[in-house]
Amino acid sequence: MATTTESSIPSLGDLTSTEGLPMLPPSAGTKYLALEPTTILVALAIAIITTFILIFVFNKDGKKLKQRAVTCNVGGEPGLAKRNHRFLSLVETPWEGASTLAFLFEQACHQYPGNHFLGSRELIKQETEVSKDGRSFEKLTLGKYNWVTYGQALQRVTNFASGLVAIGHQKGERVALFSETRAEWMLALQGCFRRSAPVVTIYASLGEEALAYSLNQTEVTTVVCDRKQLQKLVGLSDHLETVKRVVYIEDEPKSSPSLKGRSNEWTVASFSHVESLGEQLPAEAEMPAPNDVAVIMYTSGSTGMPKGVVMSHANIVATVAAEVTAVPELSCKDIYLAYLPLAHILELAAETTMIAAGVAIGYGSPLTLTDTSNKIKHGTKGDVSELKPTLMTAVPAILDRVRDGVRKKVDSSGGFVKSLFQLAYDRRLKAIEGSWLGAWGLEKLLWDVLVFKKIQAILGGNIRGMLSGGAPLSRDTQRFINICFGAPIGQGYGLTETCAGGTFSEWDDISVGRVGPPVPCCYIKLVSWEEGNYRYTDNPPKGEIVIGGPNVTLGYFKNQAKTEEDFKTDERGMRWFYTGDIGQFHEDGCVEIIDRKKDIVKLQHGEYVSLGKVEAVLAGSPYVESIMLNADPFHSNCVALVVVVHSALEGWAKKSGIQYSSFADLCEKPESIKEVLASLAKVGKEGRLERVEIPTNVKLLHEPWTPETGLVTAAMKIKREKIRKQFADDLKELYHK
């Protein structure tokens, strides 16, 4: 899949705290012992001997390098360009006639009319629980998934499109979608497309100032939102200059919204009422053309106000055309779990790709994802357990917490269970990394039955593949998911400006640390960046990543200067986007992201430090939930701010006999700081960091950075300048200690 410049991931809740992590259930440790140790050892011995014989007899040299991208001649600035090895030219549409998102959706609905399409869980009960320390938590009891078929969805979309006309939405006016991810979001999007109405997507965690800025800049007249976001709009109504109509999605319990200020002048209607109006007053569809604007997507960005990226129908369709070829055997038999924000290009591209293949899409949320999620009533099922998806998309922050949850559960089990898990893990790791004595064949089946099936049940038990984007995925987490869940991770790279299209790792590629070859809809070119000493003529080739193809967007809304800076059109008419990321081509044509232009800082004595690269290495410390490295030209060393993993630091404190009154107090203790610094030094050394790249002092923070705090983006990327500003005094103190 792809990463983006930024967008909104709702509060990760159970995934940003130690409570409610997607862990093994408490009884899982004992279940590993379903067989007697003697039986296990005998079965293991037989499996190893059998596997050894099979490999010895049938193993052939399969080490020949598979070419995944080929060099090609393209226009534009000099550099080294490659395209996907499977296609002689760039793909632009998934099939004939699917030249816009509206036509792609309609054709899919006609092809799979009776198939499950959009699934939403029934809310059975909503209650509040109070913890021992007096904190209140909302708990939900959710039922089974209720499904809308592709045929029913087409009718509802048609009705909604007609309903927009009935409430006064005029041709050429823009509609904003401002809601959490849910079925109605997708229905509204497709309804707007049937009226050729450009859609402005806004993530739910956007701050008030940025929200008003986005709506006013795009002159939105109609907003579709959920009830929670409706209250934000009402509170901002005096600052919204062009909004005339609001369509709100009903939630239980139903009640009429209260309006005030300028919102009293709005036409306010429920989603179901708009559908009903459209059914009574049908209007002819006005389908868009490929080059018409489909979406203006506002990115959270790491600095300043968000930028609106202007995407045509042809841009997004090109990415979909590429991605349907990237997931092996993608078909209407698959079930996709949707819980990341649809206002993020990663999720929008993923769900549109699923639609093209007739896949069933079941909606969930980060707060109800697993059986142990924060909002799930104890003893009831989370979204993955109920849906049992075959495919899902995740950002690294979520996968890291799944990994940490499993490890914590295994470690707490101790003894034979921990030893058995480690043996199974090591055997599978050898197999994946190419050791011919690794765990394949019958031995693999044995480990699946004894160990990994219990872990795979955390995500429903049927996952056959995962898509990771939004930020770099650590090598350790990628391997852990490969082994424990028995599924490939398609890690990719792209941006909002390229409609998520860039690179995508092929599922038979078991390497880590890379983001795959170019997707079939675009070229990846490396151009030299002399200032950073990266050149495409190096061996291996290095340089700034430039993406060219039909998926490259039209530019930034009402920001011509920035558009001209980042986008170029060559002599052949090919459009290119300059990413600012530094990449390296591997021998087989796959890309590795090795740096970012704006993250490089020159220290006092002339050494260069790449902040993002170093942070990615230091994040491997078990104590690190989030980290920001700080370097500046007036000092010869680096310091860091670290959001600490509660369970890890508290576990160390317990073993070390450290007394503390609260977790905040524990973070202030010199012993804690010393322990975390030692851990950072260790992982830094293992990651081959230079001495000047390892922080000499650190501030431990007990409160997580979430999109709601404004310190990280929707994709959980740190907002460096905001963090520096908020913790300016702490950083200054770190340098003088």
Q: Can you put this structure into words, describing what you see?
A:
Residues 1-22 are annotated as: Disordered. Residues 1-19 have a biased composition (Polar residues). Belongs to the ATP-dependent AMP-binding enzyme family. This protein is 34% helix and 20% strand. The protein has an eight-stranded mixed beta sheet, with helices on both faces. The protein has 737 residues and is α/β, with parallel strands linked by helices. The protein folds into three domains: 1-98 and 335-346 and 353-550 and 558-595, 3-Layer(aba) Sandwich (Rossmann fold), CATH 3.40.50; 101-288, Rossmann fold; 603-736, GMP Synthetase, Chain A, domain 3 (2-Layer Sandwich). The protein is globular and about 70 Å long.
Observed structural traits:
AMP-dep_synth/lig_dom; 737 residues; alpha/beta; Rossmann fold; 20% strand; 34% helix; ligase; globular; GMP Synthetase, Chain A, domain 3; 8-stranded mixed beta sheet; ATP-binding
Short description:
With 737 residues, the chain is α/β, with parallel strands linked by helices. It is 34% helix and 20% strand.
Describe the strand arrangement of the main beta sheet, using strand numbers: 4-3-13-12-14-15-16-17
The major beta sheet can be summarized as: 8 strands, mixed
Structural category: alpha/beta
What gap, in angstroms, lies between the N and C termini? 44 Å
Beta-strand percentage? 15-25%
CATH class of the largest domain: Alpha Beta
Radius of gyration: 26 Å
